[in-house]
Amino acid sequence: MTSAQHLLADEVSVGYGRQVVLDGVTLRIGRGETVGLRGPSGCGKSTLVRVLALLHRPDQGRVSIDGTAVDAVRYAVPVALRTRVAALFQSPRAAADSRLSLIDLIAEPLRATRTPESAVRERVAELADLVGLTADLRSRRPHAVSDGQLQRACLARALVHRPDYLLCDEATAMLDASTQAHVAAVIRDYQRTQRAGVLVITHDQTLLDRWSDRIVDLAATAGARA
Amino acid sequence: MADLAARPPLLQVARSRLRLRPGRAGAVTAGLVLLVAIAGSLLAPLVWPLDQSAVALDQTRLAPSWSHLAGTDDLGRDVAHRAVYGLRVSLLVGAVAALVATVLGGVVGGIAGTLGGRVDRILMRIVDTIAAMPHLLLGIFIVAMLRPSLGAVIASVGLTHWLSTARIVRSELLSLRTRPFIDAAISGGAGRLRVLTRHLLPHVLPRLALATTLMIPHAVWHETALSFLGLGLPPHLASLGNMINDGQGSLLTGAWWASLAPGGVIVVVTLAIAVLAARWRDRLDPRVRAELHL
Question: In chain B, whose CA is at the least distance from the CA of A54?
């Protein structure tokens, strides 16, 4: 691997109270590769995503981006580093601020990082086209669109900073077949053109086989290397 | 006979003519009452000035008549006239005290809910401690310390009613903080301040505004209670509590009307506010019904 271009969870352990969810898990996502992650419900897949997205501090172990260890989480991570990893969550409803229109939802990360408004508008329009949000949907609020349409907006939001790593936590589980295929195609295109590292979590074995370069079984890797 | 039975009841006819659903009829009535009350208390000094300290000892305890709609009290003052001015004071105290309580509760709950951890635990124990004391007693204590005046009454009501607001804001913030959309905002590069102002507060503000509105009738009753106990405004000033208190004496001499007008005004106006606030609450979110028993 060329000069450590990867997102790495190194010997990560996380427990909630007395219950250990992740025990010494190591997972490496290289730039340009798609890693599939599977495992039974409750085995810590979502927790691993939160750790990798720098949203949850592991009890032990650390996360590093391209060889640089990141010791902070959440607000304490420098913005330039934080925006290099994006996450797409299972429930678009829960992941979207119900007060924002889809267009504002996509634009929010750019506005948060003080991007000039003209650049924001251009980038948002480009992404809305990419994920297939028609013009009439863009000004609607989350309650007025379907889960599939909302997940498209969330995908656009995840890509807005051109992250190097994209983590998809069962992001297509709640979608109908055509939306699922479209979302998967957009992510695959993005991964190819940007040489991004993608983590895909899904219970759908067919999708996992078709989509990922290699598959990691979290139940089997607990305490082992992957 | 058959003709009469076939005819729909009068109330139903009225409703269908005015296109009022049962809930809306009450809300429209409440809105009108409140409008009259607010307009009356704002315009009173212009159209019907009152000399607060004037007495007419030749007209004491006159029964309600066309010249004195609600009668006169035992100093010969027109009860209806003074009730309008009493309402003015009560509404002012109610609104300002509710606002003070909301701001205080919002700030305390906001700090506890945003910072969490030890700060949250300390602040909430303080809230619990204050909540453990009877708040009317605490209010009396505050007025007694500050000497009875308009400001003291507002402070007394405001300083004893922010606890529930603090709890609402805190719990709302704590539950919002862990939602995935906040994670998504952080991941997208938003700082603490941006998350607070753009994602957290806008979700809390409607509830806060509602809590304030529901608190106004409660604050009005407190002002009345304090004045009734002689701890509110100076006795010569017209306030609903003062008037009910004065009326007590008249009651024994047969002048039952002296307390009736101020008592009726307070019931009708606070009921109108409560009806409107309850309607707003139900439209906002059925989930908060349980949380907002003020």
Answer: B187
Summarised one tens digit per residue, pLDDT across range B165-186 is 999 999 999 888 888 999 999 9
| Confidence band for B275, pLDDT divided at 50, 70 and 90 | confident
Residue A1 and residue A33 in contact, taking contact as beta carbons nearer than 8 Å = no
- Structural domains in chain B plus CATH codes: 94-241+266-292 (1.10.3720.10)
Which residue out of A47, A108, A124, A168 would a mutagenesis test of the B interface target, given it has the greatest number of B Cβ atoms within 10 Å?
A: A108
**What whole-number distance in Å separates Cα of residue B111 and Cα of residue B166?**
9
Count of A-B CB contacts under 8 Å: 66
* Domains and their CATH numbers in chain A: 2-221 (3.40.50.300)
- Residues B184, A95: C-beta atoms closer than 8 Å: yes
Distance from CA of B95 to the nearest CA of A (A): 29
Alpha carbon distance A135, A131 (integer Å) = 12
Q: Give the DSSP letter string of A123-186.
A: HHHHHHHHHT--HHHHTS-GGGS-HHHHHHHHHHHHHTT--SEEEEESTTTTS-HHHHHHHHHH
Q: Do A157 and B181 touch (CB under 8 A)?
A: no
